[in-house]
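[09:14] KT: can someone run the structure on this one? pasting the chain below
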Amino acid sequence: MNLTVRAEELGDELRRLREAAGFSLERAGELIDASATKMSRIENGLREGSTEDIAALLAIYGCVGPRRTELLRLAHEVDRRGWWQRTKPTFDERVRTLLNLEKKADLIVNYECMNVPGLIQFPDYTRALMIECEMVPADEVEARMTTRMQSHSVLDRPKPPRLLALIDEWVLCRLIGSPAIMAAQLRHLAQSAERSNISVRVIPNQGAHAGLNGAFWLLKRDNGHKVVYLENLTSSLFLEEPEEIEIYETAIRHLVRRALPAEESVRMITELARRWETGGVA
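[09:31] RB: done, structure tokens below
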């Protein structure tokens, strides 16, 4: 079975349930007459366990009700590429799949045309973004902030992924929060670009370019597995078909060609930070 987002999601959920129930990999395998190797492959999305295997594990872990129904449906679909997630009711559930993919990625390319890429957002900027958009309930802001900030740890692990952040120049000039918050965010961007695994490239405001259709993420592993992630207000879309991935890779090549070199991008960011500090960007 080819690795798919659905298979990985199922494996991740089974691992969480097993650990919460207090079972070792070996013991859980014994209870369904499966080796620890097979269990490991199921949890890593590398082998399709039978529906009976999954149902038995869910029973052992005490997973019942709608969650059991959802995971069994996922077990039937693990070999399908591409996933339009429309049934994730909470913010944490909607972003969980993306966070899991970020943790496993060796390369992350994030193009943004409306706001700073999430992995290198400054906390005050993130909070202001949530409040000012008026789409996040006030009592959820801090919880979402915690989730967002925890996701940043992927860049601090011993072998972090490489991040290529492609940012439209308009993002740097759009007032979010206050001039002081914008200055702090841009200083944070410039500091992030100093890290060996992070490259920040600004696409100057000079005509149309390949990113005008909206933001996207490309998450790639050294084993060749690639996923493109898109989001909107109510759902998430994960693309896995090679033909679709190729289109986004072409867009990335065009955007990189249009973007300022890394050093020039940082100079622009630093200059705009200074201008925000002294009154704003005209």
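[09:33] KT: thanks! DSSP finds twelve helices and seven strands in the chain.
[09:34] RB: yep, looked fine to me
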